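G., before I forget:
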Amino acid sequence: MGWDGRSGDLLRCVVLSDDPAVADRLTAALASSGSAAVVDSGDKLHRSNGSRHVDLVVWHAGTLPIDSLPPDLPVLGVGPSESEAMLAAFEAGAQGYVDIAASAAEILDAARSVASGTAVVSPPLLGPLLRAVVHRRRQERSQRAILAVLTLREREVFDLAARGLSRTELATKLIISPATARTHLQKLMAKLDIHSQAELVALAARCGLDTQGRTYG
Amino acid sequence: MGEIKAQSTPRQIGGTAAEVNPTGATIRKQGDPTRFELNASAFAIWNLCDGQTTLTEMAEAIGELTGVPLDETLTEVTQTIEEFYSLGLALETFPAPRTSTGQSPD
């Protein structure tokens, strides 16, 4: 259950940013009403020192690795009003997003909404964000349709190659000879009109498949 | 107006202007003094009325961001689009048939 502002509780926030000026500005915005407080600020979340309670993470989106976000706390992204940045923030786990140039009142409103469990994006940002989501979903659909031309075995080979297994490794994994693995790879690459392992990994990534970006020999 | 199809691709009528405000937007039609106040979600849907985006795609995108199930977002999108049609803010169109090299939206 999220923060319940109706009870009058102070909204306890952590500001995550590697830019001290931005962190200071967000801290000031959150503290401006007296109904919210920043209990920690910096480039990582410190949760080891005692029982400090946190309701919300305010994340300077795009400046820190995605894995710096805690999975168990609501996150408000703050960043540029560019659709790709917003989309990346939501994909990273943010439940809300406000423009970094937003007023203190807008930031505070968004913080309260996200902390209480409501997804929030300011109206000017919502349209571009939704268009970006639609665009990305179309791309994914299109790529999935492309992969549908593969046989089941070719698809297995594709998935393993995309994860960086060498031809020998994937042959071992699938209990086939390296020569057969090579044949499958050649056929699937011809079907997909790709000519290198890098293109295969890139295609797999566009399809939302698991890749590690390694190359095979 | 008959039943709206989920694969229709509504398009904003020409000559409209949107003034964004903190709660949504005000839409004005050229040569019409009427002002149409849209809340944030209606304005988001309005933004997607580009003649290319289906109702299903709109509902899926909203659902992805909000976590609301598709059947609920599709109902909201359909009702909002119906209102746009009745207010003369959008036209119902359908996607052109794709070429053999294109990809169907579904």
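DSSP finds eight helices and six strands in chain A. The interface with chain B takes residues 90, 106, 119, 121-124, 126-131, 133-134, 137-138, 141-142, 145 of chain A (CB under 8 Å).

More on Monday.
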